[in-house]
Design goal:
Largest sheet: 5 strands, mixed
CATH superfamily: Glutaredoxin
CATH class: Alpha Beta
Helix content: 25-40%
Radius of gyration: 14 Å
Strand content: 25-35%
Order of helices and strands: EEEHEHEHEEH
Distance between the termini: 17 Å
CATH architecture: 3-Layer(aba) Sandwich
Number of helices: 4
Number of domains: 1
Strand order of the largest sheet: 3-5-4-6-7
Number of strands: 7
């Protein structure tokens, strides 16, 4: 049986938690704040949590590098929400605010936002810049799952 445990960040307190993705629909809770860890929504990563979450993930991680003030980023938000909901347990969807997390943004050479980076096995496997339609995001995810 393939490993299905992943390290994920709590969107409420930021604590990293180990969860079983095969049981994502059961509603895991944060070990610190006891709030629900909503794997059907993008999780927010920081400079401090990014490497651990990506490295520990047994499934592809779609990372949206964005900023709150960015219009195209706001257009991408519902598309990413839908992907997280539809692919819960098979893909992790994450967001990195480039203004608040400059270290990881510079390391990935983010020059334009939104930029979507697909991570698989701890390495970048695909990248798209700009707002993309749902069909293109699904194609990126499907390629990462092969």
């Amino acid at each position: 049986m393939a490993e299905t445990r992943a390290t994920v960040a709590c969107n409420h307190c930021g604590r990293l938690n180990r969860v079983d993705l095969a049981r994502a629909a059961d509603g895991p809770r944060c070990g610190q704040c006891k709030q629900a860890i909503a794997l059907d929504h993008p999780m927010y990563l920081t400079d401090a949590s990014f490497d651990r979450v990506v490295a520990d993930s047994p499934v592809p991680v779609v990372v949206d590098f964005y900023a709150d003030w960015c219009g195209p980023c706001k257009i991408m938000a519902p598309v990413l929400d839908m992907a997280a909901r539809e692919r819960m347990g098979t893909v992790l969807v994450a967001k990195v605010d480039t203004d608040r997390n400059p270290t990881v943004s510079m390391r990935f050479n983010i020059r334009s936002i939104p930029t979507l980076v697909v991570m698989n096995g701890g390495r970048e496997t695909a990248r798209e810049m700009g707002a993309i339609p749902r069909t293109r995001l699904n194609a990126l995810i499907d390629a990462a799952l092969r």
